[in-house]
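Folded chain entry
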Amino acid sequence: MSSSDAVDQLIERDVFEAVDADGLRPTESFREAVDRHRRTLSDRDPDERGAAVGALTDDPETTDAFAAAGVTDPDFLARYVALRNRTTDLSPAQALTLTVVIGQFETGAPRADGAPAAFLAVDGADLVRLVALHERCVVYAWREDCPPCDAIRSDFDDLFGDEPPGDLLLLAVYGPDCPRLLDREFDVSGAPTTLFTLDGRVDSRFVGAPSTEGLTNEIETLRERTPPSAE
């Protein structure tokens, strides 16, 4: 799901509203729901917040996923609960992605000018959360003034267009914004780097610009791999 697609979905569901010709903000009713859930979750110990989310959304599977991934931030969890309770037609994976987009309106959007069209631009903290919570991800770390980055972005645009696939979460992160986090969490020390993750772990990677054929083959391999959780 690209950032623009995500915003369109949030407007359709009355989570966002127009402020002026170019501006958006969460609706008052949604902000009130987030504040209410934030107070509830902040009163819980961090290791109890996943269970509280499950009770508030009637979704025990998500509870287990948050616990396994160590996601305890009350702001993130409050936005997720408010969104799930308002939009019951969303899958947990879709709701997680939209929760990140909502948070970007509060904390500031990450750089996206070098992200392929179908990729969701994220900061380092949201990258760690989303990779941990999704079965299969393609992560593209980029920097500016980088011809190999431009080549990979063009290949991704050719492969996916502006419509993200339903079976992969496509994420783009501007490497210079979080170099220490990328090194610590994913052993990434330069850009361009492309990661293919399975059940929250890096399954394979490209450092530098791969061939278009190599990139295509690695994406298909990721789709065909059996996640450890399913074995």
DSSP finds ten helices and seven strands in the chain. The chain has two domains: 3-107, 120-230. The longest strand covers residues 136-142.
